[in-house]
User: Fold this.
Amino acid sequence: MSTTDAQHAAPQPIYLKDYRPPAWLVEDVKLTFRLDPTATRVLSRIRFVPNPDAPGAFKLDGEKLKLISAAIDGVPVEPEITDTQLTCKTPDGPFTWEAEVEIDPQGNTTLEGLYMSNGMYCTQCEAEGFRKITYYPDRPDVMAPFSVRIESDLPVLLSNGNPGKRGDAFAEWIDPWPKPAYLFALVAGELVAHEDSFTTAGGKDVDLAIWVREADIGKCAFGMDALKRSMLWDEQVYGREYDLDVFNIVAVDDFNMGAMENKGLNIFNSAAVLASPETATDANFERIESIIAHEYFHNWTGNRITCRDWFQLCLKEGLTVFRDQQFSADERSAAVRRIDDVLALRARQFREDNGPLAHPVRPQSFVEINNFYTATVYEKGAELIRMLKRLVGDNAYYEALELYFARHDGQACTIEDWLAVFEDATGRDLSQFKRWYSQAGTPRVYVTEDWRDGSYTLQFHQETPPTPGQDEKRSLVIPVAVGLLAQNGSELRGTEVLELTSREQSFTFENLPERPVPSILREFSAPVILHRNSDKAERLFLLRHDTDSFNKWEAARGLMKDCLTGMALGENTADEDLLSALADVLRDDTLDPAFRALVLQQPSEDDIAQTLFEANTTPDPTRIHQVSEQFANAFAAHAEGSLASVFTAMKPEGVYAPDAQGAGRRALLNASLTLLSRRDGGERAAEQYDTADNMTLQLGSLSALLRVGSGISQLERFYDQWADDRLVLDKWFSMQVALATPGDAARIATDLAEHPKFDWKNPNRFRAVVGGLASNAAGFHHASGKGYDFVSDWLIRLDPVNPQTTARMSTVFETWRRYDADRQDLMRAALGRIQSSPGLSRDTGEMVARILE
Ligand code: 0A1
Ligand code: ZN
Assistant:
């Protein structure tokens, strides 16, 4: 390809500032599908009306479609067609468009549009997949009611909305609620249903079904229960009722993401819905519950009110993540859920925000929108809603939400609409708060203090480091929840929210009887990095006494991070006071076992690397791995007796149930077992493996064994037991790579990639092995470069088949700048090889270019 061709082919970014309303609106859509694996015919009949506010030419999106015929008001037309668009001369006023296209679901390996997964037809249209099904204005601000007819011999034929006529080899579906095309869905296959029903507060009976392959019918009960609890919760907390006669969920094996909120027909990655005690861990159950809730909650926050354009993605995603977090907090332990959410935020979003892929919660431009389904849009987006709620107060928050639903139902909205609702409902000026949506990067908040004559002053300084394309940062509104403790551990002042608005700001607490110990950023009230020179004694004090459970946990985390970074730099060894304090928490049975397990969990090696990098030192992944192991060994030795008693005390009682309480006990049981295995050579773990009657205990013991370099025979038995269960086998693949020693990881991954069951076109299996290696920090970053080679070779191979999953996984290289020159060279070379592979997708091309920038 010559330079000019290459320049010509370079995909152009799309900018938020260029948004224009659609020239043509859609009144009604009728689709007929004649299903065939390689030659499906899609007939569309669409009523178009000109948009009086934005006159313009008629253009439809369309990709990989074979146009068979087209007509306007019954008269055949010959449109102009490019790879991505169709244009045609039209009447000035309303008209009916009819087209027939042919598509090839079997040949569609991208898992976007209409594709096949294990003999079943299914669709994925968000963000821009509908254009691979038929010609259409594939943009979220074009909303219309759809009716669909599916013609096929397959027994189950599903689409959005309510069921219409059903006959021999056809089914019709009518969705009365106007929706954008990205919410369209169709499923056809040999499926069976786990059925139930729900009566809404308004008395409407809704038929519920989870559709699966016959072998999976025993894995639906939990998902169904989670769905019914979600429906009730949304009525009770947000006053939102369901609005169709049926709600269908389908489990699909080949899926790029977790799940999709298509109107009335949610499609799930089977890993995100199927669970039984024997095959799924507690963590799987919890994730399933929150994804079911998330997709269900989208019915109001996403479907009834959608996004005007894809730059507004956080409008539906940030809010819906926040709602699913609230749901899980209510259904389980709020304190534990908050810690889990912050762990995930720091591991994924802070990492993103502090590297080359940093972008605002509402990006200003993109090349490929699929690359912006990120932790920043989702998880930081949810943090913004959480801050807003804290700033306006709970009552005002729910009043504003009522207004949002009343004012914008049926519309495609923007962040401006969302904030205007809050301004109107509360009278508050949110112009400064709005900066959170446009400014990338994790703010740093520095705190110093002053104590004088009964007055205690906290001085804050806020600063956001530059991010790609954004050198100048402005001050943000940062709610900092603070409590003050007395030296005896009692509360001098309960939690108060201080609102930081300027670069430097002080707050004084008067009339205090003694110098307080501050507990700052309680509940992690803002997504910032807090810097405070706090000594070990103060942290140990907070770990013992803080009444805010997040900050109690945070105290332990801070101590462990300090200790581990010090060890990595050769400055200290595992600190005895810290080990004792951790052992106190371990033994403290007034504390929730789940919380105790979280306190004992060491910061990840990636977290230590990032912390060192921020302190201007070059992290050495091998050394970090060694000191993490040393710390765990030291704690195991220090607390062996207590670990043994807690391990015994946490032994399961009664039948397994995936509830928060039981899961908490098992988390502490497995945490103790993992540490004890460092002392007993895996004896207890082998015993637990033999008696385990649920996956949490089976996997807990197997991973404890693998961590101490044992478990060979159990791995073989595990394989024999689960060879026919795809989801369990994913665990078998991933754990071997993720828990391998640094020197073995790439070799084990390479061997597993030769395994006959390594079906690399299945995203879950690909993630298990390739993602499994990337999650093994010391193995991936091994000085030989073999980890980088393995991952990049596979990304190059996957890209032409599935660009979306390739592009997402390329983020494993986003931290390359942290490391030493040799590793940087190796990673840049790996990225360079990806970048120069012929025909690289727009998705991966954009990601690699941004990572290297
Ligand atoms: N809206 C879904 C996530 C999703 C996005 C894109 C997909 O395909 C490219 C699939 C799912 C959610 O938030 O759950
Ligand atoms: Zn979502």
